[in-house]
Recover the amino acids of this structure.
């Protein structure tokens, strides 16, 4: 299901809250208006009751009883639904009432002196009884305090309900108008508030492999909610660009090396075919070609090995559960490099100051040592020595390769672990290097969580050392069998 | 002609040098790094320099810039494994005369090399003509007045060098510098042997002599004025 837009959702929340508020206002308004109207109604009810009492007078000539001048009764609230009244006196026999009076009405009085509601012929009425209201004789002009009357007066309340509802309708109408207005306002404000997000999206959409320029709009950076997003995008893009550039560089370097290798092959073929040659010359040419193909194969192998090691670094997971005995991998490496060392007239010495096991593929480690030794031998003058040393620290194994050769120029030192490194005389094929050996060593060491460093003095020699952490399961002195993992 | 090949891939340098020697009969020196290459280029007056770009010790582009800054006019043919448009423009602007992307065709390489040398010496076509003498630098054949002349490789080298610059006086030292690379034993009197051989094969029996010896100055290939 498609989810509502942010604007839609926020606007809905605002409108919903407004609606609740409006309903509340209407209810409060009706209640309050009703109460106010009732208070006014009650006051006038009392006034009218007293006015009725004022119409009662003594009969002339001291006759018993009382008389009422009901022609002058106060005007009703509503002419079509006349008021109801009854006047009685307990002291003198007297009773007078309106035409629509019924004694049943009086039975509803809750307690003395209180107002109550009842209905007469379907019309709601509200009434009260005023007791012991003194009457005055205008003619005698003496106040007979002894004679009092009780007055019942009731009037229809239909009007109150109508007017209270009117107030409610008014509040509701105003609320509804405000509701529409605030809804529109909210939608506009949210849309405007989200504008920096559009800017951010627009900027992000401009990113491509050719353009890594990402400048988050100022508005986005100044918005607290968007700043982390903008910064995250910036950081991620930076990393991606770096990785992409590295890949591109690797591809360009690889293409360069491959093209060169192919160029050699092609030129060998073509120069062989340039003119008719003797069988001996053809044979020599074929052997050259074989050598060229071997070189190409070696280049491919090394490039693939490097790519694999770099992938391992990128994946960041120890790939193996194997345990390698450092001393024996060093010995294997020394054995493998023996021929090259002999050809170059270089002696390789190996010393181990306490061995140890690390969690790594032994073949990988062997390759690292071989590459380091190869590099050292290539830079060593004849009849010099290359020393491979294995040492232990608290939780690291330190393996170093030292030569007393030409050394590395200080300006080249930071780049010796880069693939296809330039400016290195070993790249000239005299020594058979591709400039990949140290790059492969670095990638493998880093894949196993280790570090590799180099120090060099020109004309004095170079020392490259590797620190590898001992694996926790493979203690240095254990019998190289890892304890089984609890499942 | 003498060519310098600056290329760190030894096998490629060998192949290029071999084809230049075999096909064009030129003298070839090889430098395997930039420093050595620049040193050789500065100390010998080459007829062509073949330059790789990615070199140890000194980058090819840097070498080219320094070489041109010193005012050398020798044509430079660049071999590059990168063929992006930008880098080609940079190359040509830095003073390269032509370039070839690796892997290249050896035949095309030779044709371009010959064209560069030819143009540097003011010759528009591979067929060099002096009076009724024709030197075909593609087939390495020589004809005089429609008659084929067979020369030894060294005689041909001398003639080809002279024929590229007819009428100019070429000293013995210049000939020595341009006909031999560092691997050859140099004997100055050998030049005289080749000249006399050429004179015998080309001028003997011809009404007009073309090979001239100017005592104390050198040799020239030209029709002698006033004796036509």
């Amino acid at each position: 299901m498609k989810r509502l837009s942010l604007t839609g959702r926020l606007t809905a929340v605002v409108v919903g809250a407004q609606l609740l508020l409006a309903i509340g206002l209407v209810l409060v308004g009706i209640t309050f208006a009703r109460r106010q109207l009732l208070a006014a109604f009650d006051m006038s009810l009392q006034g009218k009751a007293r006015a009725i009492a004022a119409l009662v007078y003594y009969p002339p000539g001291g006759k018993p009883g009382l008389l009422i001048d009901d022609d002058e009764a106060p005007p009703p609230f509503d002419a079509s639904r006349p008021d109801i009244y009854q006047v009685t006196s307990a002291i003198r026999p007297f009773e007078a009432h309106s035409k629509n009076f019924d004694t049943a009405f009086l039975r509803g009085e809750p307690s003395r002196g209180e107002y109550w509601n009842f209905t007469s012929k379907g019309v709601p009425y509200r009434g009260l009884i005023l007791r012991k209201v003194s009457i005055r004789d205008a003619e005698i002009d003496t106040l007979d305090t002894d004679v009092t009357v009780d007055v019942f007066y009731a009037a229809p309340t239909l009007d109150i309900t109508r007017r209270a509802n009117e107030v409610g309708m008014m509040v509701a109408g105003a609320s509804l108008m405000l509701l529409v207005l605030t809804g529109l306002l909210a939608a506009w404000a949210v849309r405007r508030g989200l504008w920096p997000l559009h800017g951010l999206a627009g900027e992000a959409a401009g990113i491509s492999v050719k353009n890594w320029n990402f400048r988050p709009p100022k508005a986005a950076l100044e918005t607290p909610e968007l700043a982390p997003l903008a910064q995250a995008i910036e950081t991620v893009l930076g990393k991606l660009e770096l990785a992409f550039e590295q890949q591109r560089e690797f591809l360009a370097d690889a293409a360069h090396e491959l093209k060169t290798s192919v160029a050699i092959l092609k030129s060998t073929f073509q120069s062989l075919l340039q003119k008719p040659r003797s069988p001996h010359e053809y044979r020599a040419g074929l052997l050259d070609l074989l050598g060229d193909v071997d070189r190409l194969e070696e280049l491919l192998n090394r490039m693939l090995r490097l790519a694999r090691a770099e992938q391992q670094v990128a994946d960041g997971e120890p790939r193996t559960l194997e345990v390698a005995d450092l001393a024996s991998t060093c010995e294997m490496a020394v054995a493998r490099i023996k021929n090259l060392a002999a050809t170059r007239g270089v002696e390789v010495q190996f010393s181990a100051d306490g061995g140890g096991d690390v969690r790594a593929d032994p073949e990988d480690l062997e390759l690292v040592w071989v590459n380091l030794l190869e590099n050292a031998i290539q830079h060593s003058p004849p009849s010099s020595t290359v020393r491979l040393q294995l040492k232990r620290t608290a939780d690291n194994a330190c393996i170093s390769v030292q030569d007393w050769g030409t050394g590395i120029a200080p300006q080249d030192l930071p780049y010796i672990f880069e693939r296809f490194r330039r400016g290195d005389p070993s790249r000239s094929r005299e020594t058979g290097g591709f400039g990949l050996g140290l790059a492969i060593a670095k990638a493998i060491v880093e894949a196993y969580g280790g570090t590799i460093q180099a120090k060099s003095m020109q004309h004095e020699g170079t020392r490259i050392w590797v620190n590898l952490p001992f694996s926790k399961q493979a203690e240095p002195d254990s019998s190289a069998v890892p304890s089984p993992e609890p499942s | 002609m003498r060519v310098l090949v600056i290329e760190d891939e030894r096998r490629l340098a060998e192949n290029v040098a071999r084809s230049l020697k075999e096909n064009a009969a030129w003298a070839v020196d090889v430098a395997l790094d930039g420093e050595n290459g620049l040193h050789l280029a500065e100390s010998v007056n080459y007829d062509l320099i073949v330059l790789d770009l990615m070199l140890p010790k000194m980058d090819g582009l840097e070498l080219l810039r320094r070489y041109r800054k010193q005012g050398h006019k020798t044509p430079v043919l660049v071999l590059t494994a990168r063929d992006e448009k930008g880098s080609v423009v940079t190359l040509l602007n830095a003073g390269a005369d032509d370039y070839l992307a690796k892997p290249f065709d050896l035949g095309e390489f030779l044709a371009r090399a010959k064209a560069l040398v030819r143009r540097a010496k003011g010759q528009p076509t591979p067929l060099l003509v002096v009076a009724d003498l024709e030197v075909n630098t593609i087939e390495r054949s020589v004809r005089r007045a429609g008659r084929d002349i067979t020369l030894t490789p060294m005689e041909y080298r001398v003639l080809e060098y002279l024929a590229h610059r007819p009428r100019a006086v070429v000293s013995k030292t210049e000939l020595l510098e341009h006909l031999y690379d560092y691997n050859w034993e140099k004997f100055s009197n050998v030049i005289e042997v080749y000249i006399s051989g050429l004179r015998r094969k080309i001028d003997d029996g011809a009404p007009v002599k073309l090979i001239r010896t100017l005592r104390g100055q050198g040799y020239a290939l030209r029709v002698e004025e006033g004796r036509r």
